[in-house]
Design a protein that fits this description.
Layout: E1 4-9, H1 17-32, E2 35-40, H2 50-73, E3 80-85, H3 90-106, E4 110-113, H4 119-125, H5 128-139, E5 141-146, E6 164-166, H6 173-181, E7 193-197, H7 206-218, E8 224-228, H8 239-246, E9 251-255, H9 259-268, E10 271-274, H10 285-292, E11 297-299, E12 315-317, H11 323-334, H12 337-354, H13 357-374
Parallel strand pairs: 1-2, 1-3, 3-4, 4-5, 5-6, 7-8, 7-10, 8-9, 10-11, 11-12
Helix pairs in contact: 1-13, 2-3, 3-5, 7-8, 7-11, 10-12
């Protein structure tokens, strides 16, 4: 079935799960020869002047529809499937509504993709007028893609169950290639290198990891903590200043990493920690990357993580906001090298089979092919 794709999606920067997924999808589409065009949703609106930020966002919203129409004119194959990474805030819904109306008027089959677990909360908080408009638009969606089965409930009463499909995230191919080169099992040392890899957002848990590192130092434990990621407007604590002020010689903040630097950190780590309570958490790609490298995962049940990390098969699930729980999980893994090696084998095999870029691309292409056949 021949079809083309009009992608309205985020590209890097910033480096985030949604933009990484777009890169993976586009690489697969190019490799399989599917005609597509993209309208990039990524824009930086943060300024010290909130009114200027709102003005920039308004201008962006006004300009999106003409950009979409211009991209559509370049497509040849039909049907042109309209793919939109759906927003998870009132402002994003207001941005998306005109685009969905445009797609409906033009007769494009609509595929929506929610890269997170916060859509329903955002919908419930939105004004009733926005809720009513979103309900109408969702009725016309051919498919709504969520990241894992447990997140399908976000659309209860909004989308027919047979139109909701779960497609797991994939990992960048360079991560998979490096992971395959490494031995599956790791060191039997009881002094572990603990890696946190995410943007420095409070609800992602970076401050919890810093506090856990301080506890480890205070208890005379030999674990080493490495935090990697970008500081953001949601960073309440400067990681470098915290480390300096507390004299944490067991902790290093390396800032944002990519490419070889990121791969080297994953290769050197023994445990991956993400104590997240991020409100819109979905299926963090960093967790999947760590699994590719055979790392045990210490994390919470936020978003769709519970569909990925199951204790004791591939990690330890902890409550959020608890440095003590983080350190206890690390100590449990340090005391049981056999468990760490068993987890390493399971995580590597499971991630390569289910969370590769190839697996993600195939699953997405299957959704598009079915929608094209129906239209």
């Amino acid at each position: 079935m021949s079809y083309s794709l009009l992608l309205v999606a985020s590209l890097p920067p910033p480096i985030a799960g949604q933009s990484v997924a777009t890169v993976i999808l586009r690489r697969y589409l190019r490799a399989t020869g599917v005609e597509h065009r993209i309208v990039d949703l990524s824009r930086e609106f943060y300024t010290r002047n909130p009114w200027l930020g709102r003005a920039r966002r308004a201008a962006e919203v006004v300009g999106l529809a003409p950009r979409v129409l211009a991209a559509a004119r370049e497509l040849e194959a039909t049907p042109a499937i309209f793919y939109l990474q759906l927003g998870q805030s009132t402002a994003a819904m207001v941005r998306d509504l005109p685009l969905l109306a445009l797609a409906r008027v033009r007769g494009w089959p609509i595929v929506l993709h929610v890269h997170g677990g916060g859509f329903r909360d955002a919908f419930d908080r939105a004004p009733r007028s926005v809720q009513a408009a979103v309900r109408r638009c969702l009725r016309f969606a051919a498919r709504v893609i969520v990241l894992s089965p447990s997140l399908a409930g976000m659309f209860d009463g909004l989308v027919a169950p047979d139109k909701i499909v779960s497609v797991a995230n994939g990992t960048p191919i360079e991560v998979e290639d490096r992971a395959r080169e490494l031995p599956v099992t790791r060191s039997d040392s009881t002094q572990l290198t603990v890696l946190f890899l995410s943007n420095m957002i409070d609800t992602k848990g970076y401050t919890v990891v810093l506090e856990a590192a301080a506890l480890a130092r205070d208890h005379g434990l030999g674990h080493r903590f490495v935090l990697a990621g970008s500081a953001t407007e949601w960073s309440s604590v400067d990681p470098a200043a915290f480390i300096r002020d507390r004299g944490l010689d067991n902790t290093e903040f390396v800032g944002p990493v990519a490419g070889e630097n990121k791969l080297a950190l994953l290769e050197a780590a023994d445990v991956f920690v993400l104590p997240t309570c991020y409100p819109t958490e979905g299926q963090p790609i960093a967790v999947l990357e760590a699994m590719q490298f055979g790392l045990p995962i210490v994390t919470t049940r936020a978003g769709g993580i519970a569909d990925v990390v199951r204790e004791p098969d591939n990690g330890i699930v902890i409550p959020p906001r608890s440095p003590e729980a983080v350190l206890d999980a690390i100590e449990r893994l340090a005391a049981d090298p056999k468990l760490r090696n068993a987890i390493a084998i399971r995580n590597r095999d499971h991630a390569l089979a289910n969370y590769s870029s190839e697996a993600h691309g195939r699953a997405m292409a299957d959704v598009f092919a079915k929608v094209a056949a129906e239209h």
